[in-house]
């Protein structure tokens, strides 16, 4: 297929001039994440105004002019499963495109499988598929083969058409406003995720005391810095369970740290002083600088009630052809119950009681919970057995 190949700054400038008047730009990437601290961007594919283009970030280096074009608010950027595409842009200029259409999210509002792969959307929206043959290719090697190029362009050339069809369906079903609201929430969530250190997400850290959390935090930041310098996954530097074990031991004694099972490694002599220093720093923090314990919402007393309401949520979503996974899961139902019972920690808003989720399903669950609506089992309809009255 005919396309432009952009391999230097001058060609990128000319491409941007051409794209400045495009109302919509379809955007996709190819990258390699294995064995690296952060994924390596290897290819950017674009489609706009009848032009297909492949931008080579390995050859060009700085793609900030392209990211600025995406973020100037003058055009819509169409993507599929937007997280990685947004992260590359954010890491470049600290911004996220303000006008964003994610076809995967749009499909979820229309009852199409969610999260649906791009090839699934092609088949269900346009009625044909494309090859997956190059999905695991070495995208950082040059020159690219014709098969690699065709595969990469296949991921972007139909995006705008899919978005147009899905937008029309959303508008027809009165769900376009819901979709736009969800996209705003997704952009906010991703920005927060990109900006916020995620040390509290360390596996198996639940139940740590404030001083132990301080040790975990300092070890986590040490690990991140080390992984960045070495360009390797943080988990390869030191596993989560070892961070937690060191936090629980609460000692900067080199012998006790070296005695932890899993730390018998060739480079221990090199990293041991750094581990000890990180732990010692946390041990010396004054009490007022220790991290607080996060509220953890398990609400075990609501297990039976949440199972009942989650079944109702699934029934409502199926009947109205809207993906249950997009609406929420059992934890969201438990939050709703806790809010109605007065046991939800202050400052937490249950997702099912706000925005489009409240209008679609949250208010109905609230009515069930408070006895304003009842459920009857309809055995004649095994696919949708729950009837609300």
Structural overview:
The chain is of the alpha/beta class and 389 residues long. It is built from 18 helices and 8 strands. It has helices at residues 9-19, 57-60, 64-70, 83-93, 103-108, 118-126, 146-154, 159-172, 176-195, 210-230, 234-237, 240-249, 254-258, 268-283, 303-319, 324-327, 330-341, 355-369; strands spanning 4-6, 24-32, 40-48, 51-55, 76-79, 100-102, 375-377, 386-388. The protein has a 6-stranded mixed beta sheet with strand order 1-4-3-2-5-6, with helices on both faces. A two-stranded antiparallel sheet has the order 7-8. Strand 7 and strand 8 form a beta hairpin. The longest helix is centred in the middle third of the chain and has 21 residues, at 210-230.
Count of individual helical segments: 18
Write down how many β-strands occur, each being a DSSP E stretch of 2 or more residues: 8
- Beta-strand content: 5-15%
Unreliable runs, pLDDT <50, ≥5 residues? none
Question: What attributes does this structure have?
Answer:
389 residues; two-stranded antiparallel ribbon; 8 strands
Brief characterization of the structure:
The protein is of the alpha/beta class and 389 residues long. The chain has helices at 9-19, 57-60, 64-70, 83-93, 103-108, 118-126, 146-154, 159-172, 176-195, 210-230, 234-237, 240-249, 254-258, 268-283, 303-319, 324-327, 330-341, 355-369, and strands spanning 4-6, 24-32, 40-48, 51-55, 76-79, 100-102, 375-377, 386-388.
Topology:
Layout (H helix, E strand, L loop, with lengths): L3 E3 L2 H11 L4 E9 L7 E9 L2 E5 L1 H4 L3 H7 L5 E4 L3 H11 L6 E3 H6 L9 H9 L19 H9 L4 H14 L3 H20 L14 H21 L3 H4 L2 H10 L4 H5 L9 H16 L19 H17 L4 H4 L2 H12 L13 H15 L5 E3 L8 E3 L1
Parallel strand pairs: 1-4, 2-5, 5-6
Antiparallel strand pairs: 2-3, 3-4, 7-8
Helix pairs in contact: 3-4, 10-12, 10-14, 15-17, 15-18
